Amino acid sequence: MANQLSVATGASPKHLPDTKHHRARNSNFTRRSTDTMQIDSFASTLSILLILHLSTTLVVSLADEDYYDPVYEEKNNGKAPSLQGSQRDSSGESDSEKKCDCCCGVASFKSRIVGGQFAQPHEFPWLTAMIKERRLYCAGSLITRKHILTAAHCLKGFSKEDIMLALGGHDRKDFYRGKDDEVETRKIEKVAIHPQFNASNYNNDLAIITMDKPVMFTTRIRPICLPFREGGNYTGNAAVVVGWGRTAESKPTSPFPQKVEVTVLSKSECDQSGYGPTRITDNMFCAGYLEGGKDSCQGDSGGPLHVYNKGKSTEIIGVVSWGRGCARPNFPGVYTKITNYMDFINENIESECLCSHV
């Protein structure tokens, strides 16, 4: 990553969307994934701009009683936590969420990011690669032992049988060559795309993947925290976006995850950008800089935008969704607002429970 973060997938350039020829209904806006998506309401494909923000939630499943997780077991002295009743804890987290006696959003490094740069190996242990035909085309975030949070446009029109998930990796080439024995791969058991997802304007651009089997939490694979509270206002916060996408609009994808710090913009700032006052819905927000220079890019779609909460854990507050170009002046990245979807998330993680913030 240079001064602008452009996270793309591992696909070769000929498999990347050609924004000059592959246009959506509004030709000004591009999708951030690197593969062609077949969306019913589109006559052609839309290229989505992806931006990540640092916000994580750890969800742990207790459904598989014989599944040993050293990180989880150490926290609980080898015993499963009691989930009797549903009580609001001292952090103010919702009593509708089942909590495990474990912590989410524990990042390996927390140094301040000055410009775009490579992430340290496994710095963001919830970052998940989505691979189709041996090409990384989107990303997601681990929120429980079995669930991945991503963008709806990364799944709409695809067959789940064609997608592989890779967790715990760093060099994307290892995903295809099998050189890293600690990379965990999973297939998709089922997909929950938000029922109100609108492929023409990317409203409600959110989906939850259920993996075919749970992962074991290690130092390389951990979940991210969900937002601390519903309706939280993150305007003005410094956030971090990360991904394997392009390093610039006309440059190739990155072999390693790149990260960049962006600022969460207010609704009025976003409305005054080049998108205008009607394009950004209440389910979206902008992050970046109106002067441009730092952003995500093609291949980052579905990845996380996170922040650090007061307790130093990491929360996912946004999912990379769309934008115009990469790091262009007056066109910040647009994200799906996670705080609007807590009920949808809780309904689709089934029997899994959430780990607490640090």
TrEMBL record:
Disordered: annotated segments: 1-32, 74-98
Subcellular location: Secreted
Keyword Zinc part of the UniProt annotation: no
Principal localisation: secreted
Biological process annotations from GO: proteolysis
Gene3D superfamilies, per the entry: Trypsin-like serine proteases
One GO CC annotation: extracellular space
Superkingdom per UniProt: Eukaryota
Pfam family, one: Trypsin
Protein name as it appears in the record: Peptidase S1 domain-containing protein
Lineage: Eukaryota, Metazoa, Ecdysozoa, Arthropoda, Hexapoda
